Amino acid sequence: MKLTELSRRVEAQVEAVLDLAPNDAIARRLRELGFVAGERVEVVATGPFGAEPLLVQIGFTRFALRRSEAARVQLREAPAP
Amino acid sequence: MSTASQTLRLALVGNPNCGKTALFNLLTGSRQKVANYAGVTVERKEGRLHTPGGRQFALLDLPGAYSLQAASLDEAVTRDVCRGFYPGEPAPDLLVCVVDATNLRLHLRFALEVRALGKPMVVALNMMDAARRRGIGIDLQALQRELGVPVVETVAVRRDGGKALLAQLDAMADHLHPPAPRDADDPHSDMHVELHAETRRLLALAVTMPTRTARVDDALDRWLLHPVVGLLTLAVVMFLIFQAVYAWAGPLMDGIEAGTGWLGDALGARMPEGPLKSLMVDGIIAGLGGVIIFLPQILILFAFILVLEESGYLPRAAFLLDRMMAAAGLSGRSFIPLLSSFACAIPGIMATRSIQDPRDRLATIMVAPLMTCSARLPVYALLIGAFVPDEKIGIFNQQGLVLFGLYAAAIVSALMVSWVMKKWRRDKSEHALMLELPSYRIPHPRDVLIGLWERGMIFLKRVGGIILALTILLWFLLTFPGAPPDAVGPAIDYSFAGRIGHAMTAVFAPLGFNWQICIALIPGLAAREVAVSSLATIYALSAADDDAAIQALTPVISDGWSLATALSLLVWFIYAPMCISTLATIKRETNSWKQMGFAAFYLFGLAYIASLVTYQVAVALGAG
């Protein structure tokens, strides 16, 4: 499952961030921001137009991610413990 | 090893939103110097800091960075200065890595990355007050032991909040040494995995956290990011800001106008008649006065923006508007620069530095001059007052409707221009948002005041020199050669400017501009509103200030000009880059004559075409 498919206010765990292109700078930055395996993640809110961007809670921080950015984040299927 | 007599160089590094600049303000007070790093438009802030132990340090506030694997110009500067590679920038002797105690998962990771540089460093655990309020427990000793570098608590918003850091600096200044190297410190491809694993280990060891987020943030975000309530709130906030900018600035602007008028009179009375007096009074004082008059509006606008920025609301506004602005080829981050441009495009263009993506930044710079800046208002007031009846259509005042239409036309045009530029480039590459929404905070008055002072000074310095040079040039064109003794028309008619104006009618006649308008456009290049007082001069009317000029001009132009001409001139002022300071700012901020040339070319082109169409259509409809 991708982060974009996660329902709002449901907690999940990050599996990996996938590179969409070789040397994907956006994917690298997402990992640096804390999107790494095992991290708990949650979609807190969505923007008013076309449900974009997503407001994503990762670690103790909230980031606004466009859907194309969030689609790089692969989630673990099992719900978070 | 350094001695106390030498000034050691400290650099503050940290994530964005770690409270680094607030700490910098606390430590250095008003002893700050703001400039740019050599060759780039990244702000460089340096200050001096005195410790209780009598030492003096030079303190550099590096741009905020999420990682030393730089993804933006700001981050590249931070990386290179930290490593001591930045040309012309001596390597710092000691790095002070600022981390937000409430956001350690993200910030400790960066601290570990900085630590891997192997430079002497201190970790400043900032916002400890907020951390305590949220019940976050941090074992300082454990953190210090595991990191292998000194860790001190700081509270940037409290007067004595830097005490522990200053004491630490005194204690370590004489024997700086880098942290002991570790295997994990070599940069390699799996570095981010290891950095995160290490961060997690440190958190488990030294930090207890009852909740992941602050309850206040959850509650505020629920409403402020709500699709309906959030947008309504944003609209109300913007409305209040505009009200304040125009209502509160009025008396101050009148005061400045009276002040420069008095200064001109006083100086004029003491100087002998002649070109030098004319240069001082009509050229320099009047010209600089014409720019300084916008300072109250700019400062009020910036005060609001700074408060919103410090409080954490601005990224929320960007969140709400990103989708809409992205559709037009901009980004949510473009919102603030464009909002600022409604007061004046110059601070607006300077504010685009907060947009990291180069394409989004350029697009924002290009459309910022289209926002209806306050210098257009005197021109709009004159033309609307003379040509639009003060009557109501339904509940709306016709004059108000036209003014609203001019604002709306500007915004729609800006969106269209940025959309066309996006299509033109056929840019399919992805431009990231990835915007952090930090915790809400109550802004500290000191940080707002220092920010206001800095921006005010930048505006005055940037604009002052250009305006001074230009007003002298324009004064020359307007004054020489003087009128012959038997002249019948106004003196300006005989000057170089007058001749240029007459020549310009060849180009501008299809737009319905007469020679008087053409001449007024020349001094109007210094600042748009000068066109009004120039028209008064050309029509040989004596007027003390803009208001009086509008009063005196209204009957003259409503008799002398056709409605088509007035409409055409209104449309001209929506688009034309009649402000050399703005063009100069574009040149500085893009570091490119080509970009500035493109902006001037497209804006003049758009103005010409739009005015041409307006005039010709109006004439065809019988308004000529």
Task: Describe the protein's architecture and organization.
The complex is a heterodimer of chains A (81) and B (624). With 81 residues, chain A is mainly beta. Chain A has helices at residues 25-32, 67-70; strands spanning 11-17, 40-49, 52-58, 61-65, 73-75. The model of chain A has no long low-confidence stretch (mean pLDDT 90). By secondary structure, chain B is an alpha/beta fold. Chain B has helices at 20-28, 73-83, 104-115, 128-133, 140-147, 163-172, 191-206, 215-224, 229-270, 275-292, 295-311, 313-327, 335-341, 345-351, 358-367, 377-387, 398-425, 445-479, 496-508, 515-521, 530-538, 546-560, 563-575, 580-590, 593-620, and strands at residues 8-14, 32-36, 43-50, 56-61, 94-100, 121-126, 137-138, 151-153, 207-208, 392-393, 396-397, 435-436. In chain B, the strands form 3 sheets. In chain B, strands 2-3-4-1-5-6-8 form a 7-stranded mixed beta sheet, with helices on both faces. The mean pLDDT of chain B is 87. The A-B interface holds A 25-26, 28-34, 36, 39-40, 44-45, 47-50, 52-53, 55, 57, 59-66, 68-69 and B 66-67, 69, 71, 102-106, 109, 192-193, 196, 209, 212-213, 217, 221-222, 225, 227-228, 230-231, 315, 318-320, 322-324, 326, 332, 430, 432-438. Strand 4 of chain A pairs antiparallel with strand 12 (435-436) of chain B, so a sheet runs across the interface.
CA(first)-CA(last) distance of chain A: 17 Å
- The SSE order of chain A reads EHEEEHE
Bulk shape of chain B = elongated
User: Mean pLDDT score of chain A, rounded?
Assistant: 90
Low-confidence stretches of chain A: none
Structural class of chain B: alpha/beta
Largest sheet of chain B, if any? 7 strands, mixed
